[in-house]
């Protein structure tokens, strides 16, 4: 929003503002479940807790977390097979813990604040040509 020319935001140009915030707890749970619907997961995986721990994550961040957990499980399963053991049948909490070590939010808090300020500004119909301070990055 910080690079929009004020002329673009005048009445009649952008009649609707569509802002999709980062997912809330319920949405994060749904996103995690959707990502894992075809993946067997162990009983020790608590989706609600995982959703709580990933506050501020985008849908893509959550998808990446699930993919990394699956990769850890695949690697472990291959190692088990090489040792003559049976392969893993499901993702466990351990795999998510390993994946979470490197997981990062892709949208920093200051960027979220800038978009929130932009949304508030244009929702209220401000006519000032200067962008809000939070949007100046």
UniProtKB/TrEMBL annotation:
InterPro entries per record: AAA_ATPase_domain, AAA_lid_3, P-loop_NTPase
Positions of the AAA ATPase AAA+ lid domain: 44-80
Any one GO CC term of the record: nucleus
BP GO terms, sorted: autophagosome maturation; mitotic spindle disassembly; retrograde protein transport, ER to cytosol
Cited Pfam families: AAA_lid_3 (PF17862)
This protein's UniProt keywords: ATP-binding, Nucleotide-binding
GO molecular function, one term: polyubiquitin modification-dependent protein binding
Protein name: AAA ATPase AAA+ lid domain-containing protein
